Fold:
Amino acid sequence: MNTNRNWNTLNYEVKDSLGVITINRPTKLNALNVELLSELKELLLEIKKDEVFAIKGVIVTGSGEKAFIAGADIAEMSDMTPSDAYTFGHLGQQVTVLFETLQVPVIACVNGFALGGGCEIAMSCDFIYSTNNGIFGQPEVKLGLIPGFGGTQRLAKLVGRNRAKEMIYTGRNVNAEEACSMGLVLRTFATKEQMLEAATKTLKSVSSNSPFAVSIAKKVMNEGIDLTITEGLQLEKRQFSGIFSSEDMREGTMAFVEKRAPQFIGK
Structure:
């Protein structure tokens, strides 16, 4: 996986088989522009090529203390034509879908503002951790816009249709405590360091399990969210039976019978 390159708008490092993506435009509160989204897309495509689970989980966070991602770069957007906006929206949606469909768990670690596209990036991760100063919102209508990177779709699935409509129609922000109470945020922390430590601990716990089984569970849960219960159960049954042909399943069950720790290989 060729991710050892210099990025202009983000940092990426791997430690103990966990990838950490840091959005790095601190003077712009990590706002999303075309360059940043393009670099994110390139990086995520590289991670997605990993077929041996060299990376077992990903954390995405923002540089500095003020913002995870404060939104899209409005200065760049202000001169866009409808055609430009379509291309920009498509790029943003590609990035959120890549986060959502990575074969490994992804935790968004939010410190400060996660507004507009920042909230949309966070929602495309498996779950969100936040410091107590986290601020979430989809304020696009205040600029004569609507969310364009998936906010109109994912927010309702996370907090319910009525709460999502209220947030998007009013453009109001919610703090970390309210975001946690409505189910947008999973856990809150006093400091960024505590949050990143907890996210690392969570992903290390996940990494002790079969990476292949975790990837299938993620796929089934993501695809099943829009299905009826009957359709979802059929999907689950197909994947459940299919996983019996995997080496990880044979290793995991045999290790249990033999009362030893399993040695999973990710397939």
